[in-house]
Amino acid sequence: MYRAPVSEIAFTLKEVAGLADVQAHADHTEVSDDLVLAILEEAGRFAAEEIAPLNTVGDRQGTRLEDGAVTTAPGWKEAYRAWAEGGWNSLTGPEEHGGQALPMMLQAAALEMWNSGSMAFAIGPTLTAGAVEALEKHASPYLQETYLPKLVSGEWMGTMNLTEPQAGSDLNALRARAERAEDGTYRIFGQKIFITYGEHDLTDNIIHLVLARLPDAPAGTRGISLFLVPKFFVNPDGSLGECNDVRCAGVEHKLGIHGSPTCTMAFGDGDGAVGWLIGEENRGLACMFTMMNNARLAVGIQGLGVAERATQQALAYALDRRQGRAPGADGAGMSPIADHPDIKRSLLSMQAWTQVARAICYANAHAIDMARLAGEAERRHWNERAAMLTPIAKALSTDIGVEVASLGVQIHGGMGYVEETGAAQHFRDARIAPIYEGTNGIQSIDLVLRKLPLSGGEHLQGLLDELAAVAAAARDDGREGFEPMGVALQRALADLRGAADWMLRAQAEGRQAEALAGATPFLRLMGLTLGAALLAKGALASDADESAGAHRIVLARYFAASHLGETGALAAQIATASDVVLAYRAEA
Amino acid sequence: MYRAPVSEIAFTLKEVAGLADVQAHADHTEVSDDLVLAILEEAGRFAAEEIAPLNTVGDRQGTRLEDGAVTTAPGWKEAYRAWAEGGWNSLTGPEEHGGQALPMMLQAAALEMWNSGSMAFAIGPTLTAGAVEALEKHASPYLQETYLPKLVSGEWMGTMNLTEPQAGSDLNALRARAERAEDGTYRIFGQKIFITYGEHDLTDNIIHLVLARLPDAPAGTRGISLFLVPKFFVNPDGSLGECNDVRCAGVEHKLGIHGSPTCTMAFGDGDGAVGWLIGEENRGLACMFTMMNNARLAVGIQGLGVAERATQQALAYALDRRQGRAPGADGAGMSPIADHPDIKRSLLSMQAWTQVARAICYANAHAIDMARLAGEAERRHWNERAAMLTPIAKALSTDIGVEVASLGVQIHGGMGYVEETGAAQHFRDARIAPIYEGTNGIQSIDLVLRKLPLSGGEHLQGLLDELAAVAAAARDDGREGFEPMGVALQRALADLRGAADWMLRAQAEGRQAEALAGATPFLRLMGLTLGAALLAKGALASDADESAGAHRIVLARYFAASHLGETGALAAQIATASDVVLAYRAEA
Which intervals hold domain Acetyl-CoA dehydrogenase-like C-terminal (chains A, B) (predicted)? Predict the structure, then answer.
């Protein structure tokens, strides 16, 4: 059972993440509050009624590979087609190719709900969205006209083919090769692994985006090109022709997201898979990064979606399950476990963490929208904001997904460990998100080495000043519990400023290895502080006399009084543990 | 691949947990250092060569229920029988029934290795050990003579039947009923769930210990009696007779430990299962607690065992897998990921946490041994020490099991998410341990409400003084890195003293609900501090010029500089978050 938290999502978009800035822009005058609510409600209905019921069968039956063809679980194909026909694949797609060109913020909100419905279902369209964006920005008019309309509508799906056995996090090591053909196309040879929805029966065609090297390409990542390799060729009239030289050679047996086929793809077992170049030769990585940045936010939203679903389920269980007597309980019977203080604490943590992930992911989407809409003067600011928030949205939200799902299992007790309740599925599903689209370690390194130094560190200062204003407003608000919340936030901000200074100084002084050693605790420190500030921002905009508002204030107070306290230890750890870390030799 | 860390285990027993105190006792003059090492090496060999290879097949094939009979995975029966024939089931068993009466500390060490080999395998004998202890302490001579020799040898296995659908953490709600028969036996009726190894083919007989109520029993836990219900009756000559009225009605489909059958047991579908009373009527809970206390330490050791195995596997992978170039790398190729600072940090965390779990579990076993061996004057001290350490050993070590296994998955990257590497199995297996034998929330409540106040809080003070002596010794040691370690430990101890005072005051002032709200962070705070002190104790006893000693010092320094810093936030959280927690209403 999943109920889309539409009003909380709308509140977060509007009062926390800044949807009004986007609505105020001339490109989005049609995005009224009414339209936003209508879209959220309809998306929530589809997620709850059509997708959520598929989550269990996707997990239990998984996918089946037979003679190179992958069959998805019963009901998945019908649901996907209904979803695409409902226009849900085209929310942000370009208008000239049939898309609705709505803000990324709305897409983020809808994506949360698809992921709450079923993470294994929602990940497919995420990859299509990446392919759409790469083609829109980098592909030739021929490729755009041939492929974009059906990718935008969802009639076809896209994939992203990076990983090879020897090249996971390190794309320098890619070996798949491409040869120039006389007709201007290319022939692709090589094996790719971990290809999500690399083969399936949801759509009639699958459009693979594949990284490979030309024979005369420079070594390393400057010698990688991006190719479009359709499963079936497309005839000039748009109908499908023969099958390309690409096949699914295997499907992984995974810990979770069983509904989503993770394929080993063989390109060019015969004469070579026919591919079309996207962008310029040897510039494939830039194109791929277009896909990857938004994909990182989308993966963060997976963590959010699973966290929300796990929280709803644990809450329902805790209100229903009775054991023992809670302090101060009336009557004679056993109390709902939700009344026991220790379980309350766990439920509060689940709800607060989930809201932290939501606020950060939506703020990230806001920055992406603003970067697209901004004039020359502001574009850099918003691009930097999006760049800075992306690794945090990805890493923190996916850690949150695992932590919250684990708390959900725990609240279920023994029932959480048997698969029939579904609590364990969330825990298994969520565990991939900290790994793919750049491990969370890599996100942390990206934040520390590439994002903190943006504009010489000034972008970071501006962001911290914004958070400091929230902290001061909370401290001075006057309502019950706000002052300690503001003070806790100010303390956390001081920790964050100190750690950021340390990080920038370490890099300026050539002690890059020390910065790397502290990257993971730094991302968590920054994410905690940012998250607490966004919860406080929401609390400031909430009415304590109204039930949802009072709940938001409780969450913000709880988070500031509990989890936020970790920032001091994280800041200290960054400064003091790095020499021990670097001195460590694993082989000893 | 698992290699038993025999020398590290021996060091921890001896230099950290106090094995010499036990060896010095007249009852254990035979337990020489040579004997200890010989037992550890032989147990390690069996764990690595005979048990560890069964872990994967146990996970993949699980167990099969057919016509009420459960078949374990291929090879399991043979391995179990070889294990029992090797005398491994009888290490601590009473001599008069064929046991070796060795110290619990050796049993704890061996149990770590069995669990590293396969947690699903090791859990069966853990339950037998609990049954042996309950029978030894509470059963009639007839029951002891009839059942103990074969339970001690491992020829038969024991089970523990507490849980019913409506009674998990709350035994007040038990409904299984017992009726007196004319011959002095009883007839048992009722269904029990989550019965580990409730039915299987490893042994010819299974001895169920079952909690049930007599018709005239008082309500609540003072009306529960404990019965012995054999699967097959035992003839006067020791041969097996007919089957009792007990059957396995189902086997759970679980997240992990698939090799271990978790059964629904139906007692008395016919005329009633014949049971023999253990101890006195209505005093069953006291008998059951005999089993449960040691079972709690055994579950803590499951967390330890899985953590050690996951760490070994992640380390091997990180040394083998090459990606990117580490800072300062020589040569041209890719570096082992173990050389990247962020991965070093993760490996250090895995190793340090594992050693924390080991030190605490062994210290707990030491206290149990000392309580058994102590004269009148010291018995209370050691009983209190064992009582205080048990909830920490159980809860912290099992949290460590999950955290370390999760880091292990993460270090494997995408390969960690596919089941073939086995990293995901550790993550799945480990997840039950924080739940069963009293959830970790219940352990925290036990620590705060029942253990902190022992001897009016004086036992705690004595323990803290011991830890303070370690901190002072570290601060004054003079070797590189020891001073900050000692200072960090002193700070943590101050946090712990403050939080413990707060907890005892809250209870003295009738604010029990507040104490409950802070119980989970308190247990972690105490566990972190205790763990860091034990690592420091090991470091103080180590030679920095010797490779293993240098490694121990690095782990202790790293843990003090990183994870230990969390204590300040935990102490603050206990004092400041409890009012928000209590004000929270889940139903809102």
Answer: 464-583
